[in-house]
Fold:
Amino acid sequence: MSRPPVRLPAADNPLNVKSIHKAFVVLEAFRDNERYLGLGELAAATGLDKSAVQRFTHTLRTLGYLEQDPVTRRYALGRRVLDLAFGFLKNHPLVERSAPILADLRRAARERVDLTLMDGDDVLYVFRLQSKRETFAAALVGRRVPLYCSAGGRAILSRLDDDEARRIVERVMRPAFTPATKTEPAKIMAEIRKARRQGYALQVGEWRPAELVVAAAIVDRAGAPLGAVHVAGSLGEWEPEEFERRMAPLVTNAVGAISE
Structure:
């Protein structure tokens, strides 16, 4: 199930450069949409007029942040976008510190291991280590998953007080991504409180129907959550109780090592 493109905040601050804001609105239109978009589709997605979209796409293509199909004349994200992602990941201290610990965790768990960062109302996948053949999307960084329905998100929310966690849960739209997705605030809060007691969260089939995940939050020196470490497995290979018993100590130990 695709999520709608994330809208950037309104450019109403007098210090904002409106043309830069609009250029990033054009780039944001490619999130979770088809790879190639035409000028009309971009205009509809951004709310900009077609003339403005044409100028922004031309400039972004010249800079390498968009590419254009020579036959259809439609646009796609360009390779230069990856330069920024590389710089972010290479220079992020938490990613650098976590990498060797996550490699050890994958060897011990023999399942996929992920690192996410808290970003607004989502967790953002920034490091992924596969242990076997999986779906294409499961190997990619940059995936966003809502806090309310992910193991990592609930582990992160468990490090906030109840009122703040509930505000975050209640302010967002809560679509059901699978038949198992919990969307009622009371049920989500019950999972968050359980994660607070245990020190980790377990999620079964709420984001992907055949997947189960154990995750624990990484916090800063003041106890504020920064992100989470996840171990993900298949319901075709694991019973939830056995997966939790096996993976929860591994995940919490890895988080402890990162936090030290």
